[in-house]
Amino acid sequence: MKDSNEPIIHIENIHKRFGRIHALRGVSLQIQKGEVLVIVGPSGSGKSTLLRCINQLEECTSGKIIVDGIHLDSAQNINAVRQEIGMVFQSFNLFAHLTVMDNLLLAQKVVRRRKKEEAREIALNLLKKVGIPEKANAYPYHLSGGQQQRVAIARALAMNPRIMLFDEPTSALDPEMIKEVLDVMLALAKEGMTMVVVSHEMGFARAATNRIIFMDEGQIIEEAPPDILFTSPKHERTKLFLSKVLQL
Amino acid sequence: MFTRREPKIDEQELTHIPGAEPQNRLDAWWWLVALVAGVIVLLSLLQPDPYWRIILFVRDGIAITVVITVVSFILMLFVGMLGGLGRISKNRVVNLIATLYVELVRGVPLLVQLIWWYFAFPVVIQQIGKWTHISALANFHANAILLAIFGFVFCYGAYMSEIFRAGIQSIPKGQMEAARSLGMSYFQAMRHIVLPQAIRVILPPVGNEFIALLKDSSLVSAVALADLTRRGREFMSANFNPIEVWTMIALLYLVMTLFAARIVNYIERRTKFER
Ligand SMILES: Nc1ncnc2c1ncn2[C@@H]1O[C@H](COP(=O)(O)OP(=O)(O)OP(=O)(O)O)[C@@H](O)[C@H]1O
Ligand SMILES: [Mg+2]
């Protein structure tokens, strides 16, 4: 079943409707193991919805999603699938009532059922990896946005996911903090993590991937390596969008 | 690390050590509790007849009032939690049941509900027992205190459900989503992430409900339960001194509610946190 040539994420003609809003209109996509895919597109184009369908925070209205050989619409235990898919949110979503360490420990304990010492060691190593081991006992509200987002990445990694989804991980951050988060993500990409990243950071896209997708109005408009997409996009809509983003 | 820190930041961090906040020290309102308690003691010492006699006479009533209040309160927390979860449930049937419960119960006066449970409910059970020929039901006689507790839990549970619903909904959706994305089930996420945060939001209104319940417990005197209020009435009808009796009864309720309010306030401050 898990043929090594099989894409780790296989999406076939999915549609998502929120009442009268048709957020995804026939998206098909394949992502190989170890690949980094960057998604760009204007606000409301369905980027978040696409990511959220992959880990079933939203159920798609029609179409097929296969993650790691498991059909999501017939998955017996969606929690088991989600354990394998880490997600990082624009607004961090650290557990506000728990310390950084407990943020990293909780799911390891209740979902992975790891022993306390083992979970602690994993957590500490990850905090070192994202560069803030000294904040283990701080509460989220004492951290800067960049630090919070790095903790959120570490929290997702603590579950040993096979796939990481990033939904605009740096767009809520002050400019001087963006780099510290992107560096962590780049390191992760270099290690061979499968990543789907919604981000308009062109520098990151150039360094991390050779495959970038432009979405608009719930559809994939075009796909190309970053250099080509950024410099000579084929479609008018892509040009229009890039001209707006690059002006910023 | 510490040497690089500015002293000013140190000071700020000190204020965040749990329990060290200045407002956690006993606040001035405790003096009011002490004052009312002092008045009660003083009256009983200076004029044991009738004040000390009143206290001796009603003390089993105090016990009943306290037991009914505390037991009902603990049970209604569970009902409120279930009702609140039901009100936000995506399951239509669960949601409908919870909503009906809340809407119906809130539309009937508490006193009428208590009387219904006390006088009507046992008869209903007895009738069912007669129809079904189950003698255990036909001879049903419930303990008056249990019926009173049942009535309070049923009624206050509905209000509590709304408090829990509002508290749970006040926690940003991202908290639940982050928990689910880590593979936690809905109930794991509720238990470990949403409810612990909602508790802090819920605490002040829940504390108010406790105090309201303490006062409303006097309604059981209408259904033949010898609580503080009823014992006061009994003492008065034997001794014909309404001023002294009802002043003392009022003072006794007052010292209990003021004390409860301080406890609630203390717990609130202990559990406060920043977001
Ligand atoms: N829970 C929801 N209920 C109703 N409509 C929704 C919901 N989530 C998304 N939508 C709608 O679906 C469309 C796509 O939204 P989505 O969040 O996927 O866009 P996006 O590309 O991520 O935009 P942004 O860059 O602003 O984050 C939008 O029109 C949005 O209003
Ligand atoms: Mg989005």
Quick description:
Chain A is an alpha/beta fold and 248 residues long.
Report what the structure shows:
The complex is a heterodimer of chains A (248) and B (275). The mean pLDDT of chain A is 93. Chain A is built from nine helices and ten strands. In chain A, 38% of the residues lie in helices and 24% in strands. By secondary structure, chain A is of the alpha/beta class. Chain B has 275 residues and is mainly α. Chain B has a single domain, classed as MetI-like (MetI-like fold, Orthogonal Bundle), CATH 1.10.3720. Chain B is built from eleven helices and no strands. In chain B, helix 3 runs antiparallel to helix 4, helix 4 crosses helix 7 and helix 9 runs antiparallel to helix 11. The longest helix of chain B is centred in the N-terminal third of the chain and has 40 residues. Chain B is flat, with a radius of gyration of 24 Å. At the A-B interface, helix 2, strand 6, helix 3 and helix 5 of A face helix 8 and helix 9 of B. Bound molecules: adenosine-5'-triphosphate and magnesium ion. Magnesium ion binds next to helix 1 of chain A.
How would you summarize the topology of this molecule?
The complex is a heterodimer of chains A (248) and B (275).
Chain A: E1 9-18, E2 21-31, E3 36-40, H1 47-54, E4 62-67, E5 70-71, H2 78-83, E6 85-88, H3 100-110, H4 116-129, H5 145-157, E7 163-167, H6 175-190, E8 194-198, H7 202-208, E9 212-216, E10 219-224, H8 226-231, H9 236-247
Parallel strand pairs in A: 3-8, 3-9, 6-7, 7-8
Antiparallel strand pairs in A: 1-2, 1-4, 4-5, 9-10
Helix pairs in contact in A: 3-4, 3-5, 4-5, 5-6
Chain B: H1 7-14, H2 30-46, H3 48-87, H4 92-106, H5 110-132, H6 135-138, H7 144-169, H8 173-181, H9 186-216, H10 228-239, H11 242-271
The complex binds adenosine-5'-triphosphate and magnesium ion.
Adenosine-5'-triphosphate is lined by residues 18, 21, 23, 41, 43-49 of chain A.
